[in-house]
Every structure is written in C-alpha cells, then in structure tokens.
Amino acid sequence: MTTLRDNFWIWGHDAGCHHRSTGNSANLYRLPGENRMGPLEGAHYLGIPNCCRVVFDGRPEPPFDAESERLRPFRRVVWSVIGDAGSRRNDEGGDDLEEVLRQAERYPNVVGGVLDDFFRPGTKDARMTPERLKVVRDRLHGAARPLELWLVYYAALLGIDYDVYLQQCDAVSFWSWTGADLAKAEENFARFIELTPGKKRYAGCYLYDYGDIRPVTRAEMEFQLALYRRLFLERKIQGVIVCSNTVADIGLEAPEILKRWLDEHGDETA
C-alpha cells in the first residue's frame, strides 16, 4: 500500500510563468507577489514527492536534459508530450514524444508522458488525431521500460463525446477550471468516473482560481481536499495533481491549507 502523500503530484511549470501569462508581461491572472519556486522547490515546500513536468508557453524547449537533472529527486516524473495551449510548437501535429522517450532512457524516474490542453474548447476537436494518439500510446508502451500516457480533462468537457481519445490513455486527470465547476465537483466526478472505466484517475487541485481570476477560498480548498481524500480512500482516484509551484510562494492561503492538510492526512492509505 502507498500513502495519500505518495500519490500527490506537482503540476510543474517554470518559475514565474503564470505571472507572465501567455508570453507577455501583462499578468492576466492578476497574481500577487513574485514566484521564485520552480517545480522541485515548490514540491519540496508543499511536501509533494512526484512531478508532472509540463511545457508552458513553449518552455522548456528540447532538449530537456538540464531540467531532468533538476528533477532527479522526484520519485516519479511524467514529462510533457504536448504542452499547454500557448505552446505553439505542439500545434499542427507537433509534439515532444521523441524527447520524452529519450528522457525516459536516461532518467529512471520518468514514468510517462502527458498531454495538456489536448481538447480544443467548445469543439469535438483535439490537438492530435486518434490515429496519431494511438502511435504515441504504442511508442510509450513499447519503450524499453514501458511508459504511461496521461491526459488532461476538464469539467467543461463532460457534455462532449471524447471516448475515442479517453480510451487510449492510461491515466486521466480531471480539473475544475472555475469556482462554479468546483461547486459541482462531486456530481462531475461521478460522471467522469463513468466515462473512464479501467483508467487511472487523478484529481486536479488548483491553488488559484484561474477561470475566475481570484484566489481559491478556504471553504473551496477544504471542500476539494475532503472530496479528493474520500475518492482516494474509496479507490475511485489514484491520486491528486496540484497546480502549481508557480503560486506556492506568492502569499496565498491555499498552499498553507494544503501543507497543513497533508501533515494531517498524508500518511493515510487506501
């Protein structure tokens, strides 16, 4: 058995990149303070042992070796095959699959690849065809040390049939982008679980409400952590992914709530 803490992951982005928003200096999310913590520093501060290292606004660029060296202390790392929606090199059929495979050959803590912002908002389209997705999955599974394929999925997508994509993935993380989505998280998770039979499931836990551009309230933080704990103990999810190191050190209350909560519940096992 592994503990609840053992199955927490940091959604790792470059320090300061959320303040820069989508490649400019506007701070569109109106984040306070200054973020200096990178993925390892943020995870260490929060008490999180694993990392999803995801390209944001095109960074980091291949080769990923220097960053993988910094990530050596993590128990497990899932590297970005497709970065966020602002990572333009991953548009029009591009991806970083070959680089992820190379990192896994060099670094034994790399256990998979993740597709961020995979579905195009308001459509049935994705950033990769089902045929290409199958190639990516097969290449990961066929590596010398088999790797997993992870996918990001949002509550706002629940009304769209993405089964042809979901069924090809090993693990799917579920995120509530706005406070309204989070308020319906219990109902939405039930639907998400129905859509992903046999898959590993991870709850996405925001430390800042990017959709509504405001801090997560204490009540919202306590609600989501209690829900994710229950789902983990019931073995309906395999863990929690926290977003992110980029807001861990800027004076928000949510990271401190998470730290205290992990101190209280982190040793629990399912």
What report would you give on this structure?
This protein has an eight-stranded parallel beta barrel with strand order 1-2-3-4-5-6-7-10, surrounded by five helices. The relative contact order is 0.18. The chain is 31% helix and 19% strand. By secondary structure, the protein is of the alpha/beta class. Helix 8 (218-233) runs parallel beside helix 9. It contains nine helices and ten strands. The protein is globular and about 45 Å long. The longest helix is centred in the last third of the chain and has 16 residues, at 218-233. The termini are close together. The mean pLDDT is 95.
The averaged pLDDT comes out at: 95
Q: Unreliable stretches, pLDDT < 50, 5 or more residues?
A: none
What gap, in angstroms, lies between the N and C termini? 7 Å
Counting DSSP E segments of at least 2 residues, the number of strands comes to 10
Label the structural class: alpha/beta
SSE diagram, text form:
Elements: E1 8-12, H1 39-46, E2 50-53, H2 65-70, E3 76-82, H3 97-106, E4 110-115, H4 130-141, E5 148-154, H5 163-166, E6 171-175, H6 179-183, H7 185-195, E7 200-206, E8 208-209, E9 214-215, H8 218-233, E10 239-243, H9 254-265
Parallel strand pairs: 1-2, 1-10, 2-3, 3-4, 4-5, 5-6, 6-7, 7-10
Antiparallel strand pairs: 8-9
Helix pairs in contact: 8-9
